[in-house]
């Protein structure tokens, strides 16, 4: 058996690690030498008894990078090709391949891995090692597998320069590109950490990225979350009560009433890392971005891949998931309505239920509460109803919506999406009441404690107050930019503006986060309807709810006066001043208004501009766009289109978020298209729209939902907190007891 032991004599360590210059430094400047030694020891302790296993396609640089990493760590380096296979076979790898053929080669290569053992080493695998399951399982037992992820186009260019035109597993008639793509499934199966880089990254830079990635993997303590209302002094006193990603997914709202945010902020991608994703699919982009936002101690890469595959696999009608369509001039539409319930909410809520089911403890049942202004409800109900049967038994969802504040089709959707673990309750009030009620329930420790003790059931949130809801939204804003680059509309690095119909501030916050992570977004344009409290705030710095009443509009998803996720943005621009955020929101709660300092308003206006759209202008925009292009905007997208027309300066492309499918708002669309006879039956309305052969076609998922019987069967409740809590308790008794 081939075996490498990590322990080396101190003499050899010193010989390998300390140059003559370092020895002189040790004698002449002991403090400086101590710092160097501390750095070396920090790197060396990364390995311990574990191996760092470099995996990737041929041409990824595994051998070169492995040598550099081993030098930095002061530990052995093993190249499987040179140090194991050729010594085992007494012939070159190419000769062996020619001698036995593809299938036998892979088997014998795997058997060699099974006989191999090492510890505390850096190991460079062959490009084909991951194709042998037993061999990789053996390697992973004592190793951290690092996937060197290089774009296929870069690998092909490198192999061409190396005069390599055939690799292991490549049969006649199969191109080099095809076999490289085929191998990716095996790399994705085995890795613990991904290191992403393009063709121009120097090996030394990649080696540092490997070390940084391993450090992150081995230290989850660095990725903690804080409340937007926590003070710095309070944080230092509460180090023993760190919150991690799995905690904030489960808890939703912070105990002090604030929202969870990552203590060290979001990860930054280099320009080269973003550029390496230009050729990637949406699912591949999602995997890379979310891996950097979710520590593998919370969700391992393999499980995250499984979740993303389930979320965006067969549930979306468009293979591109979130396609970018040219509208006119410099305007592009980001179509976010191809999911099962026809709105942008599906991007998070096809994924979040599976994340939630993975993160929560098995010892407790969970009831997920959600308030909706229209689209969230059906998306939550659909997402949680797709859980595995065993998870449905311990996770249920209850959706509160304004009984008279959503479109008829939205209501039919929410009722039609009810399943054995998912229910809708209409509330005789508006969305702000529903959202505030849920926040009050979560902060009522007596009530939540009673539910836990009496019924073994904890409450959780699925609104965008839950941090996990925001992460998938970052992905589609980043992906839209990369699509424009891929289509040749702009070179990478050129700026774009984004215009987003905004009510609860979550979608536009995700765009701001994408900007922070390195996507070149210049301005985020906040588009309001006649409930324009956000527009006034962005223009003046005054958030004033005094005397305001919610106005029902054609765009109900943004009929919101209290924007929950704005709190996360204020925490950001105040440099994480939780005391100031607490002060502002206490004033809003008690007095109905607050005002930003001048310096904070200036900071805000560097990121955001805002405008609003009347009902008449919304309908006119739908008619105008259809008349000139044949494309039908939904009412929310029309609001954004109107505001974009007014505020863009036309010096760069503008991406308008098309947040819902027009089918959900058929009466308003038919009115905008000036169709006189409108049947009140929602299904008839969709059939009428379909007869116009519109672009895009009527949404299939809505048609299927509306065909279901029993679409009037739901509970209705008065706007009373005690009644809402009673409904919750009744549901818990019926489902979990």
Automatic annotation (TrEMBL):
GO CC entries: cytoplasm
Residues recorded as bearing N6-(pyridoxal phosphate)lysine in the entry: 345
Cofactor: pyridoxal 5'-phosphate
Keywords: Amino-acid biosynthesis, Pyridoxal phosphate
InterPro entries xref list: P-loop_NTPase, Ser/Thr_deHydtase_PyrdxlP-BS, Shikimate/glucono_kinase, Shikimate_kinase/TSH1, Thr_synth_N, Thr_synth_N_sf, Thr_synthase-like, TrpB-like_PALP_sf
Keyword Amino-acid biosynthesis: yes
BP GO annotations: amino acid biosynthetic process
Molecular-function GO terms, alphabetical: pyridoxal phosphate binding
Every Threonine synthase N-terminal domain range: 239-312
Pathway where this protein functions: Amino-acid biosynthesis
Protein family according to the UniProt entry: Belongs to the threonine synthase family.
Official protein name in the record: THNS1 protein
